[in-house]
Amino acid sequence: MKYFEERGHLLTEQANPNSQDLDQLTSLELVELFNQEDQQTLKAISSAKTQLAQAIDYTTSALEQGGRLFYIGAGTSGRLGVLDAAECPPTFCTPPELVQGIIAGGAGALVRSSEGLEDRLEDGVEAIAHHQITNLDVVIGISAGGTTPFVHGAIQGARQRGATTILIACVPREQVSIETDLDIRLLVGPEILAGSTRLKAGTVTKMALNIISTGVMVQLGKVYGNRMVDVAVTNKKLHDRAVRILQDLTIMSRKEASYLLERSGRRVKLALLMHWTGLDQEKGESLLTAYRGNLRAAVRSCTQGSENSN
Question: CATH 1.10.8.1080 region(s) of the chain?
Answer without folding.
Answer: 236-309
